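Quick illustration for those who missed Monday's session on complexes.
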Amino acid sequence: MQKNPYQLPFRPRRLRANEALRAMVRDTHLRVEQLIQPIFVKTGSNKKDAIASMPGIYQFTLDKLAEEITELQKVGIQQVILFGIPAYKDDEGSASWQDDGIVQQAINVIKEIVPEMTVIADCCFCEYTSHGHCGVIGEHNGIKDVDNDKTLVLLAKQAVSLAKAGADIIAPSGAIDGMVLAIREALDELGFQQLPIMSYTAKYASHFYGPFRDAADGAPQFGDRKTYQADFANSHLALREAALDIEEGADFLMVKPAMPYLDIIYKLKQHYPEMPMVAYQVSGEYAMIKAAAQNGWLDETKVMLEALIAIKRAGADVIITYFAKDVAISLGQ
Ligand code: PBG
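Prediction with PBG bound:
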């Protein structure tokens, strides 16, 4: 045998020689039980409308939702997050707290078909307000903006309504100061002490939400969301937001978007390892992968899995992703 001319102290390639070895030493795993599928529901019947900028994602009427939930259960998806496109919009977003609101009804439908499905209800106003902002509008010195504390009152109302409808987790996404505390207090008062809150902790004013705003019909009709969602050029502030959420009683922290914000996921997980960390791979991230794949420029399945592993590697425990069903199918094979 030829003598090795190099006395290397360690050879990383030794454990990369074949798939069995690679699998044995892998430290990051995608698990279907940690993926959450977002679902858009709307009023009407017999409709499953495609969203042009999000191939493979639909707006479902309640009858069609039933079919989708059955399919999700078959492939092993255990949790969904609901977004509603309501029958009407007004200044306050009052359609969001009606007993027969679209999300309230959707929760019922899901619980009837698959009672063990964890139903997360997004709790926000942008889909329900005529102006498309995530709260009620006030005016100060001639400038219109979301009135923080008036919005808190309405958020509590919406959360209670979703809880009464049977939601398993409330997920406030409006980036309104004090939203976790306001919701926690309202839930506790009515006996929902056991209902967890998944707070969109570090939610950035991102341009990656574009396709979602088509899907949920929730684009702001004037201005933007920069006075409530975080400035994406800020990193350290995420720690403060997380500290506040924890103090206010959040059960999960979330970073959104995910892949362009891996540093934030990493930072929060390092700082608060005890908090379940959720990452939201948003509509724009999904659309980019889909578009490149449709052009034949990227291998969709491989890039999907790599992107999600990267998000977990950074420190996410749970991922909200439009790919959840596809991942479940591809891991199940
Ligand atoms: C509502 C909300 C948004 C998203 C989730 N909840 C839109 C926004 O903040 O404008 C975006 C999700 C996505 O892009 O996939 N506040």
